[in-house]
Amino acid sequence: MTWCEMFGWLPLYDSLEQTWLGSTVRESLWLMPAIWAVHLVGLAAIGGSILVVDMRLLGAGLVRLSPAQVAANAKPWFLASLALMLVTGVLLFLTEAVKCCFNNSFEVKITALILGIAFTFAVRNRVAARDDAPAWLMKGVAALSLATWFTVAAAGRWIGFSG
Amino acid sequence: MYRQTPYAPSPLRSFAEWLDTHAWSTALHESLWMYPLVNSTHVLTVTLFVGLLLMVDLRLLGVAFKETPVSELTSRLLPWSVAGFVVMCASGLLLFYAIPLRTTHSVWFRVKVVLLCVGAINAWFFHRRVSKDRDRWDSQPKPPVGVRFTAAISLLTWTGVIVMGRMIAYNWFDCDRAQSAFIVWAAGCATQVAELSP
Amino acid sequence: MKRKQATIQRSAAAAAIAASVLFGVQASAHHAFGAEFDPNRPILVRGPVVKIEWTNPHAWFHVEHTTEDGNKEVWMMEAGTPNTLLRRGIHRNSVPIGTEVIIDGYQSKDLSNRGNGRQMTLADGETLFMGSSGTGAPRDGADPREAARTEDVETLKKAKEVDQADEEES
């Protein structure tokens, strides 16, 4: 049972699927494949920009740089790829919103995505920005960040497998 | 009336047909959990392989980590990237093993393999040739044009590999559909050319 | 041979393009509706299941459909993954070869005998969603666009009546 079913959001999801944008992308021969491809390239980019910071917080990767330096360098690429993922992700959602209404993986993904964005901006980026944070805090924050974003990606892939 | 001319399969085709007879290939293709898990691993590991490689390439292009020596990024990040690449290859081979015939004749897959080779040659060229005088530009915020060029090739190639990998899913150029002569050639479709008999 | 416009509208031309017989038919994968299927070509396939490919990332149901003028043609209808189908109550033992089914869905854009399966109705009236992409997938069969598909439902009812009449005769 999904939240969409429980709270009766189906009419809303259905109207989203019926929008001009949703129908156009869904019925086009090449738009969905193209958007999918961009979404996956974006996955690589956002993954790299998250990994490089969280690895540093865990004491791996660019250890000669301070966490703040790594975070500052990765930030514009994280923001750009996040924007790319959100735009392509919304388009993909519009093409099969009704299916998503009954898909647990979709709701897990969206929940983890909201948590991930909130945690990244409210906690993780702040911890990374101050170089004097205790090691346990840095590691804990990085582990939480990685776990959350992994859930976003894995649940996202699983939408298609759990139809 | 149709008359079918004899058909001799190519070695590649024979290999794919042989793989297709494997019980494990069928089992993976029809599995409830293994195929989705292997596929997910393949997709998610791209963050490690291409994602971290992107950070290195951005440094080589002179648009990120400008204050950090190039060697610092290559030595600290590339091992992780290579680890991701190994996992991608292993899971990718399993995905091929599950669906050998269709994949062998997929134009997208063939282009992907070509791009993989281009990426490998480019990586070899970077490490063997371009990096020879690295001490000279290791700390430059913006490395010389040749270095930036190989980084751009790397980004374009691996982006292409991702896109081609995704496109394998679509049946536009599958051999079991009517295709142009070019696609039949490019996909190596095993044609039994049927001619109208006189 | 001439074909009438039957339950299934399609161009015979595509089928006739058999000039070069290609083989190695291994069911294709796909994750986009419009890339392969035409939402403006709803189809209804009825008949015995002659073959099922329980494959990832999509399973394929081969159904022998009899057209109005008595021609038999095999249609390949795409479904979700084996995992998806299992969740919806469709597995090897539930649909043995020979099972009479009615599958509604959408025809392939290349006008071949392929479709994107939306739902499968078994002889006992049980309706199962096939978990294919792009066509919505309610669990309880209450598709919001069901009202717009009354034509299909009418055809389906008729088909069942014909089936029952056949059984009574025999």
List the helices and strands and how they pair.
The complex is a heterotrimer of chains A (163), B (198) and C (170).
Chain A: H1 3-6, H2 10-17, H3 20-27, H4 31-57, H5 67-95, H6 97-101, H7 104-129, H8 135-162
Helix pairs in contact in A: 3-5, 4-5, 4-8, 7-8
Chain B: E1 2-4, H1 11-20, H2 23-29, H3 34-44, H4 46-61, H5 70-98, H6 100-104, H7 107-128, H8 134-137, H9 145-167, H10 181-186, E2 191-196
Antiparallel strand pairs in B: 1-2
Chain C: H1 12-16, E1 20-22, H2 33-36, E2 37-53, E3 60-66, E4 72-78, H3 82-87, E5 100-108, E6 114-122, E7 127-129, H4 150-169
Commentary on this structure:
The complex is a heterotrimer of chains A (163), B (198) and C (170). Chain A is built from 8 helices and no strands. Chain A is mainly alpha-helical. Chain A has one domain. The longest helix of chain A has 29 residues. The two termini of chain A are 13 Å apart. The mean pLDDT of chain A is 95. Chain B has one domain. Chain B contains 10 helices and 2 strands; from the N terminus they run βααααααααααβ. Chain B has a two-stranded antiparallel ribbon. Chain B starts with a strand and ends with a strand. Chain C is an alpha+beta fold and 170 residues long. Chain C is built from 4 helices and 7 strands, in the order αβαβββαβββα. A 5-stranded mixed β-barrel of chain C has the order 2-3-4-6-5. Chain C is globular, with a radius of gyration of 15 Å. At the A-B interface, α4, α5 and α8 of A face α3, α4, α5 and α9 of B.
